[in-house]
Design goal:
Elements: H1 23-41, E1 46-50, E2 54-60, E3 69-74, E4 77-84, E5 91-92, E6 95-96, E7 105-112, E8 123-127, E9 130-136
Antiparallel strand pairs: 1-2, 2-9, 3-4, 4-7, 5-6, 8-9
Pfam family, one: HSP20
Keywords: Stress response
Family: Belongs to the small heat shock protein (HSP20) family.
């Protein structure tokens, strides 16, 4: 185990937890991170398609009910969030849980859709674990160049 950082390594404790004493803790932490990554990796995968008239968004949200999902527009940003509670009890009336991998918690994605987008412009539907959003293209505002007078000193 190295007690001092390598000359080119900027982390003082980079090798500290490589000691065999910490192996059980490290393995348990790695397993938890891998499980969380696997669970969250399949949530909210998103496809965005541009059409002649607007945009179509398909977002995977498996295991959520329609009532668990919230779509909000604020200051030009569209946020899709979902929350699912699941009992954290180790036992229920039918037995003891040995392993629980299904996701429980909150997830969200945010997209910039433009300051002129209105709530009434966005249509949302949910079917077979996929949230579908349709929104129109926003017309680009022509920027009018205005002359600005510059004061001359003296």
């Amino acid at each position: 185990m190295a007690m001092f950082p390598a000359l080119m390594n900027d982390t003082m404790f980079s090798d500290l937890f490589d000691d065999p004493f910490f192996a059980g803790w490290r393995d348990a932490a790695d397993e938890g991170r891998q499980l969380a990554a696997a669970q969250s990796g399949s949530l909210m995968n998103t496809d965005v398609r541009e059409t002649d008239h607007g945009y179509e968004v398909a977002m995977d949200m498996p295991g959520f009910n329609k009532d668990d999902i919230n779509v909000e527009l604020k200051d030009g940003y569209l946020t899709v969030s979902a929350h699912r509670n699941d009992s954290k009890e180790d036992k229920d009336k039918e037995g003891k849980w040995l392993r629980r991998e299904r996701y429980a918690g909150t997830c969200s994605r945010t997209f910039y859709v433009g300051d002129d987008m209105k709530e009434s412009d966005i249509h949302a539907s949910y079917k077979d674990g996929t949230l579908h959003l349709q929104m129109p293209k926003q017309e680009a505002k022509a920027q009018v160049e205005q002359a600005h007078r510059i004061a001359i000193e003296g």
